[in-house]
Amino acid sequence: MSNGAHTGRRRAQFVHSSGHKGKNHQQAPKEPWDVKIDVYLNSVGPAPNYPADFDIQTCLPTQWNNGEDNPQVFFFNDGRPFFRVTFRLWDNTNGGLGSGYKFVADKNDALWSKLGSICPTAGCWDVFAKSGIKRPNDTTITGDNPNDETCLGAFQYVLRVTDGNKIVSLDPGGNNMNGGTGFD
User: Fold this and answer.
1) For residue range 171-184, what is the model confidence (pLDDT) as tens digits?
2) Domain 33-176 architecture
């Protein structure tokens, strides 16, 4: 999905994050999985599209799809009600010195998500619902991913960042795999 070039190694397959894939436990934790996805903004190209070179890193399982610059992140609930995903922005532009990039001020404009394989180009919250989006500071945005029956399968999300002059869209992908128990 990204317009940038990836220079790291690509993995052919992902590994499920649990040793008990597919088991339905009668007793399970009631709190969400708290996960972090680090987003490294390396450079931003010229107008009008401002193509970005960025990387993501997370403890969640990932898979490289052919031609993609960033991996697709897989979400396996394993009995938890949902995922609370914290995206942390690391501005490595300007030769690593940064250029003041931060998430856009309106939290609902900072994180969009859409079911399927097409990235959202306008406000859309199919997976990360508006009600669960938080922006605790300029470089952190948090969204709740229910990974339930309403949003299983592939989805795309866009993280929108700004240096105060232009808005840049970072667009990795995700895949909700096995559904959660829902929000309480």
Assistant:
1) 887 787 765 545 44
2) Sandwich (2.60)
